[in-house]
TrEMBL record:
Main location group: membrane
Highest taxon listed in the record's lineage: Bacteria
Stored Gene3D superfamilies: N-terminal domain of the delta subunit of the F1F0-ATP synthase
Role, per record: This protein is part of the stalk that links CF(0) to CF(1). It either transmits conformational changes from CF(0) to CF(1) or is implicated in proton conduction.
Organism in which the protein naturally occurs: Algibacter marinivivus
Official protein name in the record: ATP synthase subunit delta
Pfam families noted in UniProt: OSCP (PF00213)
Homology family: Belongs to the ATPase delta chain family.
GO molecular function: proton-transporting ATP synthase activity, rotational mechanism
Alphabetized InterPro entries for the sequence: ATP_synth_OSCP/delta_N_sf (IPR026015), ATPase_OSCP/d_CS (IPR020781), ATPase_OSCP/dsu (IPR000711)
Length: 178
């Protein structure tokens, strides 16, 4: 991914600045909003990547869309504009969220299921993930009907696949090998 290292550097600098200003939590909320908005809005993402759209127009759009953001967040937009790196804004925002969670000792557990998790099941997954990692864990549920049933649990770089689709693929491989 182009700009990944730069995004990490900007995110670290922003976290340091926000922490010094006691605004890390507020900036984290802003960064979540920015990351989600850039991912969910293809037009905005394309506009940020476009070399044809003038920087002044990009800045005007961003300041209008994120006008209720913290001044530290707005200064990030200004800095990225000044350095011609506004195209990595979404990446900086998601890296900031990761760094912020790490600094708070929070780990994200992603649970992919065919249907939405019930509140009771979410509590059980949360308790199990906390027991496995020894850290504070937040559960993020992704719905993917293609797994048919079961679940896929991912914590950091560890993945446990207990999906029906995975079990069917294993059976298929067994039968084709024999």
């Amino acid at each position: 991914m182009a700009g990944a290292r730069a995004a990490i550097r900007y995110a670290k600098a922003l976290l340091s600045l926000a922490s010094d200003q006691n605004a890390a939590d507020t900036v984290n909320e802003d960064m979540k909003l920015i990351a989600d908005t850039v991912v969910d809005n293809k037009e905005l993402s394309d506009a940020l990547q476009s070399p044809v759209i003038p920087s002044s127009d990009k800045k005007a759009v961003l300041l209008e869309v994120f006008k209720k953001s913290n001044k530290t967040t707005l200064s990030l937009i200004d800095t990225l504009m000044a350095n011609n790196r506004i195209d990595i804004l979404g990446h900086v925002a998601s890296k900031y969220n990761q760094l912020f969670d790490e600094s708070k000792g929070i780990q994200i557990a992603t649970v992919t299921t065919a249907v939405a998790l019930s509140a009771d099941l979410k509590k059980k997954v949360l308790a199990k993930a906390k027991a496995l990692t020894g850290k504070n864990v937040e559960v993020e549920n992704i719905i993917d009907e293609s797994i048919l049933g079961g679940f896929i649990l991912r914590i950091g770089d560890v993945q446990y696949n207990a999906s029906v689709a995975n079990q069917l693929n294993k059976l298929k491989q067994e039968f084709t090998l024999n």
